[in-house]
Amino acid sequence: MLEQITDDIYRLVVRFKGAMGEVNSYLIKGDNGYTVIDTGIHAPETKALWERVLSKYKIEKLVLTHTHEDHIGLARWFQEIYEIPVYVSRRGYEEMHKGRDAKARKNRIKRLIKKHGAPPIPLKIRDESHIYKFEPKGFFEDNDEITLGNRSYQTIWTPGHAPDHYCFYQPETEIMIIGDHVLNHLSPVIGLWMGEEHNPLEAYFEALELLKGYQVRQALPGHGDIIEDLNERITDIFQRHEKRLQQLLELMEEEEMTAFKLTTKAYGPMKSLAFASQFMATLTRLIYLEEQSKINVQTKKGKNFYELPAKDLQAIRS
């Protein structure tokens, strides 16, 4: 079940139906048992896998990189059924409180997608509020030292993919547990999954730049393969975003559009389950461009329309 990554770190791939289909959980060996990083979603198949693991290995504690459903899903179960203490960031605890009120979250999402021209169908979400309804054993803050296994790791706040996202860095071994901040073959979706409108892409870019200052031999992501050259992968992600940002600017040369219409122009008609993520990625790029003063936004009949500044359109058409 466990794949050895380093002398004290093991990977468990937790597979399940839907969403990403799997999560990398990491078990870090220590004198008092293993520290687990993230769990997978709350589902019968994930519980069955962890029951096998828990029958063979002593688990000291569970630590979360962030509180998205596929990472915190079994945390309450770990703590209440197996009495394994759960540790989350203070920022993550704030997100847990938001997640506990499913009705309020759903209403925020409905208002958000209506404002940006999308029908409710692509962003229909399940009620996962029950996974947030517990009290963690303890908390960590920005730039704390946290013990994982027998080693001390630095907590690095890396918002963007989630407002409460943290990476854990071990300076002696140059290992970074990187969660969903950087993935090897995919660009993490930067979305507004709690329905609150802000500028997460700007925060994401700043957090990517921050990680360039760390010497990392291996980065252990929450999904997919281990990253051997973190800075190279960060450069790739920047370039991918730049292409998508430029694409949106070019599409707006035609006419003003809502985020929903721009998503269909950029990715094609709304067909696949991936459309919700594509819509969120487009929306957060538009918010970023608007705050960079590269586009304008106008509200008409309760919907936001994005357009190039008049001077830019004039220069293009002259």
UniProtKB/TrEMBL annotation:
<feature type="coiled-coil region">
    <location>
        <begin position="231"/>
        <end position="258"/>
    </location>
</feature>
<keyword id="KW-0175">Coiled coil</keyword>
<keyword id="KW-0378">Hydrolase</keyword>
<feature type="domain" description="Metallo-beta-lactamase">
    <location>
        <begin position="22"/>
        <end position="223"/>
    </location>
</feature>
<protein>
    <submittedName>
        <fullName>Putative metallo-hydrolase YflN</fullName>
    </submittedName>
</protein>
<dbReference type="InterPro" id="IPR036866">
    <property type="entry name" value="RibonucZ/Hydroxyglut_hydro"/>
</dbReference>
<dbReference type="InterPro" id="IPR001279">
    <property type="entry name" value="Metallo-B-lactamas"/>
</dbReference>
<dbReference type="GO" id="GO:0016787">
    <property type="term" value="F:hydrolase activity"/>
</dbReference>
<dbReference type="Pfam" id="PF00753">
    <property type="entry name" value="Lactamase_B"/>
</dbReference>
<dbReference type="InterPro" id="IPR050662">
    <property type="entry name" value="Sec-metab_biosynth-thioest"/>
</dbReference>
